[in-house]
From TrEMBL:
Annotated GO CC locations: plasma membrane
Transmembrane segments: none
Main localisation: membrane
SMART domains membership: AAA
Gene3D superfamilies: P-loop containing nucleotide triphosphate hydrolases
Name this protein carries in UniProt: ABC transporter ATP-binding protein
Location relative to the cell: Cell membrane
GO terms for biological process, alphabetical: response to antibiotic
Membrane topology reported for the UniProt record: Peripheral membrane protein
One GO molecular-function entry: ATP binding
Amino acid sequence: MSDDVAIHVRGLRKAYGDTVAVAGLDLDVHRGEVFALLGPNGAGKTTTVEILEGYRHRDAGEVRVLGADPTEASPHWRARVGIVLQGTGEFDELTVAEVLHHFAGFYPDADDPDKVIARVGLAGKARARTHTLSGGQKRRLDVALGIIGRPELLFLDEPTTGFDPEARREFWDLIRDLSAAGTTIVLTTHYLDEAEALADRVGVIAGGRLVEVAPPNSLGDRQEALATVSWRTPEGTLESAQSATPTALVTELAARFGGEVPGLTVTRPTLEDVYLRMIGHQ
Ligand code: ATP
């Protein structure tokens, strides 16, 4: 395995009784990459990620994360891996600052807790008790706990669920900053715009297998897909045509209309379109 591979998985399998959650999954994540795992409910994302984090034992397969088998992980390995689980974020009577300072003590090279609090947008809540935080603020605290140890590799499980639109944008900026500083990031999400905004590559899991891995703009041969050109006829009805050469069609329409084409739109399949088609085939 070369040094630029952060995660290497071959033939991963995991069943819970009769339920096969992961059915022979292969995956490589490069160092410094932002990798998004997409997939419908029950596809096997959380099981896969928990195995990579060392929280779940696999039935079969080869798994290396930062060069080690997570089931045999040392404390040193744990300190290099940051994990943001779905909804911890509540520590009774402790304040945000107290929690962060406390957790910073667990890491050999922790970041400055006050800086991390500011980074996740909780500076105004540093002295608030964690049980008084809103849902979105608790998620920010989860993220702060995931990055306090300055991880080389950060796992984020549905990180922005419950965030308002502004908080999501701020969170995306934080992920971009972490990525620019060299952190490898693996996130699961149900938000396709989030995957598109953040990920270098997207992996689609369905039925416990990775069915495709590609940059978001080329998933499912999206770039080569036909464009749909729509316009309004002089009678006011909407017409549309699929075209591999939409510019030529628009030029022809412009000539036909003698200039401006009423109601003109040119679209290609969105990430959501190709994703739904892909999981529909499974
Ligand atoms: P979601 O998007 O809903 O979070 P997911 O892709 O993360 O789904 P998993 O949580 O990995 O999916 O679940 C995969 C399959 O394994 C599902 O059928 C689920 O019901 C089953 N499963 C997960 N955890 C357990 C468990 N502890 N015991 C039994 N079955 C489980």
